Amino acid sequence: MKCKKLIVLLLIISSNLTIAQTAKIDSLKNLFPKEKDLNEKAWLLLEIGQTFFNLSEFDSAYNYFQESHIIYEKTKNRKGISDIYLQYGLIYEYQSNYDSAFAYYDKCIELKIEIGDKLSLSRAYQNVGVAYYYKGDYDKAIPYYEKSLKLKEEINDTLGMAEILNNIGLIYMAQNNYYEATDNFIKALSIYDTYQKKQGRLYATANLGIIFYEQKQYDKSIEFYQKAEEIANQLQDTFALATMKLNIGCSYIEKKEYEEAKLYLEEAKELTEQKKLYNNFKANVYQNLALAQISTNELDIAYKNILISNKIYKNDKNTDQLSSLWTEIGNKQSYSVLS
Q1: Minimal CA–CA distance to 238: which of 194, 285, 191, 287?
Q2: Which of 7-11, 54-58, 220-224 comes out lowest in average pLDDT?
Q3: Cα distance between residue 89 and residue 104, in whole Å
């Protein structure tokens, strides 16, 4: 039974950030009636919409973007209009409505080129690349990332370059082109190291761990996962920390070093219980812990952990992930009786 590692490197909005975002919305709303300049009013509405977007409240975000759009049309503010098109595209992208997302991104790009807004144009190209990535059209994603990268070089946005290099690495990794993926992750990491950008360093470092894991170079994968674990600890990013512990545990399972695997997986389990991390992650941890425990003949506790994992998956109607470890427990029990 192969270890089910979990690779999740998305930004998670914490409860503290949610409170901060809500406070920002209230502050912006208070400023709106006092503002006389129409373009400033439109900008405030855009900011409120972006804040709702960060909270994944897409309907509210869309409504504020529309109000901002109406004002920008009145003032003929082409930059503002192009910014709104970008936001519409993002909402549709997050809803997996890629045709509508691409349509608005095209409108945004056309205007950005006309007004010479290179910074925002680089972001628009990047967003198109991301959309193609999530759609699975990797060959279409890379040219847009490369356009974005070129613009970021022109405007000396080096941190933006690192982000693009990381994304290009993810595409090559999805295509099993580990050489190109590693090259791009290392380039991204070299920039993040210069700026001591810890969140970016976390992602690039963890991605290198994934690359080596996929190539069955488990010692190297553990090395990079542990570096990412240290950064996650510094950032107090519980989800990233638990994810790295899970992935380290999986690497040790592949090495058949089950005692080490259990140490990391128990720590990951403890974090999921303390912080109430999302269900599928918790189920994944319990399932992999059970796999390690089966390998060390702790069949009773493994059985309980499989029950917990499967109950979570069933409650979330995620039956594709239900454990198939029952057979292994049965085989182990039969063997011990016969012996």
Answers
A1: 285
A2: 7-11
A3: 5
